[in-house]
Amino acid sequence: MEVAVEDTYAEAFDGLYFRVIVTADDKTTLRRAAEDSTSTPSIVIRRVEGGIEKYIEKTKTPDGRLGVILQFWSGLDEKKPVSETVDRFYREFSYRVRQDILVKPFTSLFDACPNPIGRVDAMERIGHCGDGYEWVEKRHEREMIIVPIMVPDFQIERYLSYGRGVTGGNFWYMCRNKKAVMEAGRRALKAISNIEGVVTPFDVCSAGSKAETEFPHIGPTTNHPYCSSLRRKLGSSSMVPNEIKYIPEIVVSGVTLESVRAAMKAGIGATLKVDGVVKISAGNYGGRLGRYRIFLKELSI
To answer: Which regions of the chain are under pLDDT 70?
Structure first.
């Protein structure tokens, strides 16, 4: 059965990102640092969110150890100066580094931003974890802060660049059964992992949200017209097709609009081959909030 692709679009947003390389001595520590630091998607509540772009071999890291490329993202409010967003973003990002990466044995962090528009001094909110005993020296052909800790020592590049990219690209794949949810999600994430410069902060997300809410103090709430468990209660207001029980979402952020489009195309293409996937759609807000409209029909799937 051919999967229908709805004639709609994903609404995406401008965002700021840090893109970094984290290195460690072993795969287990590296994976824990990567997963712990990127595990909580939080842009919708004005915090920072991140994702794992890809793991890289020793030959591709500054210090010749196992590495992983991570991205950390913040929303960008066009009504406020970029500097104001950067201050808040850097503060939130520093918590992830300090609490999830610095504390892992023998980890180091390096800048990997491809198109920087500015930079922050890592000494201010991360280096001073050394309580004044930290120092700066050139290592691996980079200016590094050495933060003395009890399992010596955490190393972080002194200046970390940030760039401007696109966050919130997304697609929905509507499914008949649980097996399709998980199998199509696995295939989509694998396909997206081959696209450079993108991350999927939620992986497979079961809780697409909407901007309007009866409870603004908790932020975005459930996108109720697309909840199959509310089909009877909503009646004609329900947007869930009769044969559909599950509507997972995959959200994509990337360093360029082109990379986000490529990731969406790859991910959607992978879901089309899974039995039980019936329809492809995307989340948007009627064009009211995001700068970008990524039309599914234009992805040439």
So the answer is: 1
